[in-house]
Amino acid sequence: MATILAIDGHPDPASLTAQLAASYAAGAGPGATLLTLRDLDFDLTLRTGYRTPQDLEPDLFRAQALLEQADHVAVFTPLWWGSVPALLKGFFDRTLERGWAFRYKENGMPEGLLAGRTGRLAVTSDSPRWYLPIVGDSTVKQVKGRTLEFCGIKPTKVTRYADVRGRSEADIAAWIRGAADLGAADAARPAVVRPARELAAR
């Protein structure tokens, strides 16, 4: 069984995103962890970029430990302004530190230090699914390609919950039930044996 880390990136506990993340984690079984970002205590802002160190809060140290332990990382987020909520973006900025989640090789190319893990990105949106590629699908490109896979978490599959405003209560309930099945399927994958990794200086 794979060790699952589900990350709920929505600031509202009553949101569809939060319900989907909770259902997914429950379906994944007792070995899964649901990391609810709105319950963490940390500064969202990377104050000086990477120019000077910024100490991690205890909740972010725990988040890094959970990422280290995970075989599979599932991120649940709404699409807001072609991106993600500030809560999730701040979590990425602060937690995925250079030298811990990625580094640059001598030739200038990036190397993901969280390799050996797979991912899933679940995105809710009021926009219909057909519309998102027309406007660039920026949230998926940002989180899947330029964040998770940049750090070595790949392949990352995408699950969409689109046109939320136009959905019936029955549709929403089916989505939430289906998220549990998705969690169970992801957890059923074999656990990954990863060699110890050498971290670059932070």
From TrEMBL:
Residues 3-174 form the Flavodoxin-like fold domain. Belongs to the NAD(P)H dehydrogenase (quinone) family. This is Flavodoxin family protein. Keywords: Oxidoreductase. GO terms for molecular function: NAD(P)H dehydrogenase (quinone) activity. GO terms for cellular component: cytosol. It holds the Pfam family Flavodoxin_2. SUPFAM superfamilies: Flavoproteins (SSF52218). The keyword Protein biosynthesis does not apply.
